[in-house]
Each structure stands twice: as C-alpha cells, then as structure tokens.
Amino acid sequence: MKIHLLAVFILFALNINAQDKITTTDKEVAEAENKNETNTSFEKVNPRIKRPWGFGLGYFLSFDGTGAVISYTHFISPQLELGVELGTLASAFFNFTYAISGKYHYRKSESTKPLSIFSGLNVISLSNSFSTNQISIQTPVGIQYLNHNGFKYSISLVPITNFENFETYFEVRAGYNFKKK
Question: By CB atoms within 10 Å of each CB, which of 63, 76, 89, 172 scores lowest?
Fold first, then answer.
C-alpha cells in the first residue's frame, strides 16, 4: 500500500511538473506569435503619411461676420500640407474667397500621434459681383487632429490683412483624409 501511494505521488508530481513545462512552452509560443502578429498586421505610421489627401469643411467667425469654406488639401510631406480653398462670407451676398494655402505641421515624420500644431500662409482673393478682386494674406496658427481612420478636425486663429486693414478670426474645420494607394 505504501508503495502504491508513493508511486501515485511520484506520478502526480511528474504530471504537475510536465504540465508546468508545457504551459510555459505554450505561453512562450503564444507570446512569440502575438509579437509577430503585432509587428506584421498593423504598424502605426504617421497619419499624415498614411492619409495624405483629403477634403474639409470649415466655419469661421470674425468681428465682421461669419463664413464657410470648403478645401482640398494634400500632404506633400508629413510636415507640409498644401491646399486650395473656396469660401463665402455670410454677411455679404455674392462674396467669394479663393485661396491657395500652405501649412507647416510641427510633428516629426516618425510620429504616430494624431495631434499636430501648425502654422501657415494663405494667399486669398476676395471677389464679388459688385467690385474688383482684393488680395489678402492669412497666417493661421492652430491645432489639427487627424486620426488613423482619416477623420480630421482643427481649430485655429487666423490673422488676415489686405495691407490696409487687419483682423483676426476663429476657425473650426472638419474633414476626411483618404489613404494613399
């Protein structure tokens, strides 16, 4: 009887020891597989590299009134965003703005973070059916959030001058950037 109990105890101890070794080995294999999946299935990259071009809608508010803008933008590098814009002023009927814009984003190329501080330079032509074109310069400063799914949002303060007058307005934009092929 003592020999049977000793044999059962030894077999039980060997079985537990064998299970621990298998579990550890399985755990190591699972960790290695998980590590490989993480590296190959989805590597985070800078969203400004992954999604370089997009469209946006904006709303701005100034002391003279409000307005809206639609834009097409393209990141030619993770820091440099160029665009064209078409806007209208709500306070004046048939007032349209056409702009060429450039923004510099102060995030490193390697950054995977969606938030970026930017500053820019926009050249604007304001025209309406009752007067001639008027050229203005904008220097926006703001924050843009471009997530990895392509949705982008920004807020900015935009000083504007036509070389005779100077004002600053507040702008909010939302848009979508598409993946490069």
Answer: 63
